[in-house]
Amino acid sequence: MVAVPLLALLALVLSWGRELPPVLVIIVAVLLAGAVLAAVHHAEVIAHRVGEPFGSLVLAVAVTVIEVALIVSLMISGGEHSASLARDTVFAAVMITCNGIVGLSLLRGTLRRKVAVFNAEGTGGALATVATLSTLSLALPTFTTSAKGPAFSAAQLGFAAVVSLLLYGLFVLTQTVRHRDYFLPVTTAEAAPATAEAAPATAEAAPATAEAAPATAEDAAADAEEHAPRPSARATMISLGLLLVALVTVVGLAKVESPVIELAVSSAGLPQAVVGVVIALLVLLPETIAAVRAAKRDQIQISLNLALGSAMASIGLTIPVIAVASIWLTGPLVLGLGATHLVLLGLTFVVTTLTVVPGRATLLQSGVHLVLFAAFLFLAISP
């Protein structure tokens, strides 16, 4: 996993700003996939060293910072066609994280255990922050009247930028300092109902104990991975450097591939918003893989930290940067969502709230989230 990020970085340097033939486009796509896997590996090394929730925070913030740079660079070079790129990418990030990543994580967790358990206090606070940021930044511009179209006035955009930064900073303080325990993994045994402890020791009570113990070779392997020795400080610093290289190459190669993506979208007669969806899918691929792997280890809380943390960082960091960039960006900045997307956004937060409140989820909840994600993808292609 050391050579792959460096090879991907070399490919990025050689291909930047050039029109690639089909063979090189395929090679770049392969190196892009390798950089994604390398980013996940090095993020997990760092997470194992610093512990949760810092590990999830490192990956979410690192990916989002580079994602913001990609959005701004595409908006600068894209002209009027990129007026809604920030909105499309951020909305796609919210739908991918809150439905796609959450749904896949719960699916993986409930296939391993019948019930996926997590901390409702921490996850609920994260969801409330994501819902507030999304509504202020993506829903309100549709209904404000100070500026023409679904856009903020300069003062409104400045207010949204400041509030986004403050809310995100407050959440990070809560997650890492004041209530860190709310964001730590919860085991099945810890989440077992208190009544089970008081119940008679009969055969009916045995399944709860059986669920908490590794029942398969896969469970044993996951537990062994979880309790592996912590990496040294030197190994962690190397992984941090390689993580940054991998993330830069993921986003950079995604931009290299973006002309091919735009051409394919245009040739297929698809809406321009699909470009933002594809970019968000590529950029969020490291978090998706990391979240599903955490769910495989029965650490649903880490999966939810990654999902909601990524959604929060996407909004909390993108909107302030876009507000500053709007000073020199020409053309309108469209942020407000249309009616279809507003319905999807509202339904997503209602469903996610019902999933989070009990602190336990089943296969049904994973299916509901994945159906919502499929509806988002379908409506992006066929609005």
Query: Average pLDDT, to the nearest integer?
Result: 81
Q: What are the secondary-structure elements, in order, as H or E?
A: HHHHEHHHHHHHHHHHEH
Structural class per helix/strand content?
A: mainly alpha
Give the overall shape, derived from the CA principal axes: globular
Kindly estimate the percentage of residues that lie in beta strands according to DSSP: under 5%
Q: Tally of extended strands?
A: 2
Identify low-pLDDT runs: 193-215
What are the key terms here?
75% helix, two-stranded antiparallel sheet, 2 strands, 383 residues, single chain, mainly alpha
Write up what this structure looks like.
It contains 16 helices and 2 strands. The protein has 383 residues and is an all-alpha fold. A two-stranded antiparallel sheet has the order 1-2.
Architecture blueprint of SSEs:
Blueprint: H1 3-15, H2 22-50, H3 54-78, H4 85-112, E1 116-117, H5 120-139, H6 154-178, H7 188-191, H8 194-198, H9 206-212, H10 217-226, H11 233-267, H12 273-283, H13 285-296, H14 300-325, H15 339-356, E2 360-361, H16 363-381
Antiparallel strand pairs: 1-2
Quick summary of this structure?
The protein is mostly helical and 383 residues long. The chain contains 16 helices and two strands.
